[in-house]
Amino acid sequence: MTTTAKPRQSFVPVPAESHFPLENLPYGVFSTMADPAPRVGVAIGEMILDLAEIARAGLLPGLPEGVFAAAAINPFVALGRPVWSATRKRLQELLAADCPTLRDDAALRARALVAQGEARMHRPVEVMGFTDFYSSREHATNVGMMFRDKNNPLLPNWLHIPIGYNGRASTVVASATPVRRPLGQLKPPADEMPHLGPSARLDIELEMAVIVGRDTALGDVLTVAEADAAIFGYALLNDWSARDIQQWEYVPLGPFQSKAFATSIGDWVVTAEALEPFRVEGPVQHPAPLAHLRQSGPMNYDIQLAVDLAPEGTDALTVCRTSFRYMYWSSAQQLVHHASSGCTMRVGDVLGSGTVSGPTRAERGSLLEITWGGSEPIEFPNGLERRFLEDGDTVTITGWCEGEGYRVGFGSLTGTILPAQMPEAWKS
Ligand code: MN
Q1: Among 11, 328, 408, 424, which residue is least crowded by beta carbons within 10 Å?
Q2: Which of 85, 101, 121 is the last residue of a domain?
Q3: Are residues 252 and 168 in the same domain?
Q4: Distance from the alpha carbon of residue 130 to the mean position of ligand 1, in angstroms
Q5: Residue 205 belongs to what domain range?
Q6: Does residue 117 sit in the same domain as residue 134?
Q7: Strand 263-265 with 172-174, pairing
Q8: Do 234 and 266 belong to one domain?
Q9: Is residue 234 a contact partner of residue 272, using CB atoms and an 8 Å limit?
Q10: Active site includes 160?
Q11: Ligand 1 centroid to 141 CA: how many Å?
Q12: Tell me, what's the pLDDT at 147?
C-alpha cells in the first residue's frame, strides 16, 4: 500500500469512520423535496455537495454548461481522465478547511450543501451495457464443486480467460429498489418435467461494479494500461441470482433469466483516483496469462466488504466479510478481454466483477456458498434459519478502504425481496 499524507481537513464535519472524507469525494445522483430534478453531487461527511449548483456559481470553470445538471454521471465521465483529475483537485480545494471561497459564502453553502438524510438517491450511471464476470477463483471453485464436479471444479478455460456473459442493462437498479422474486422454469432433480414457479433458491452475489469511462471504436482493442486508465470508478453491486432457475437454464449458453430480473448498484461511484492508495497485488496467476492479459504490479484494490442479512422483523446478521483484493482476474484484465475481439466499449458500461469470495468460510460472497447449497443454514440468534432469501428479507452490502486515520468508502447498498407475482392462467 502506498503511504498517504495526513488527511486534509474539510470545513464540512467528517465524523470518525465516515466513508466520505476529503480523500474520497464519490459521485452520485440525487434529488430533494425542494428540487426534484436529479443532479450530480459528491459525498462529503454527512452532506452532498451539489455540483450543478457549484458549477452555476462559476466555481468549476472550463466544464461544459450543465454537465452536472444531469440524471447520470455519464456526461461528466465522458469528458475523460484529465478532467476527472482536475475536477477532483478543484473540489478538494473548495471543500478544504483553509479555503474561504465556499466556506465563507453562507448563501451558496445553504444552496449547495444538502444533508444526505434529506436527499433521495438515484441510480448514478445510465447503464449502457452490463457485463458480469466470474473472476473469484474461490467462488468459481465453490460453485463448480456444487454444480458440476467436486474433484474438478474449474473448467479448463477458467485460468486463461476472465469468464463473463452479457447481462441486462435494463434491470440494473438503484439501491433501495425492491426486488421482486422472479418466476422461472424450475426442474428439481427428482422431477421428470420442469414447471413454472417462483424461484425457491433466491440468492445474492456480492460484487463490485466497474464504470467504464471511455468509448472505444468498433474493432479497437485495449492494452492493460489503457484499460486501467479507462476505468472511471467503482461501486457496490448485488447481482441477485435465482439458483434453481440458473441450474436448469444455464447449459449451454450461460445464465439468462436467473440473472436478468435485478442487479442493484450502489449510490456512490468512488473514483479510481481515490482508490489509488489502496492498490494491492492480486493472487499470483499461474499459468501465466497470454501476452495481452499480462499485468504487473498492484492491480487489485483492498476494499473491505460486508454483507448483512435481515429477515423482516429480525435484527441484521453479518453473513460475510471479505475483501475485493482476492479477485484472480483484475478489472483491467476483464476490460482488456472484453474489448479484445473488437467489441465496442462505451462510457457508462458497467462490468460486474463476479461474486467476491475469499479463502475462508466467513468470506463467501453468496448464500449458495455460505449455506453450501442450502445444506448448512444460517442461524439467527432468535432461532430463525435461512438457506436462501425469503420474502421480506433485506440485504445490505457495505464497502470501504481502510486508510491511516480515514476511510474511503462506498456507503451501503440495500434491497428487500418482494413476493413473486404469478398470473392465474400460468398456474396449472
Ligand atoms: Mn454475478
Answers
A1: 424
A2: 121
A3: yes
A4: 11
A5: 130-426
A6: no
A7: parallel
A8: yes
A9: yes
A10: no
A11: 14
A12: 85
